[in-house]
Design brief:
Strand content: under 5%
Largest sheet: none
Shape: rod-shaped
Number of domains: 1
Radius of gyration: 13 Å
Number of helices: 1
Distance between the termini: 44 Å
Structural class: mainly alpha
Length: about 30
């Protein structure tokens, strides 16, 4: 199902963005 695949892709992209922001915050705290 294309719609399901699209939703999974968007969820993964959001998770990657969140991890990216957390990593940037940790780096900036050093």
């Amino acid at each position: 199902n294309m719609i399901t695949a699209q939703r999974v892709y968007q969820a993964n992209a959001q998770t990657i963005k969140a991890q990216d922001q957390i990593l940037q915050t940790i780096v900036s705290l050093r």
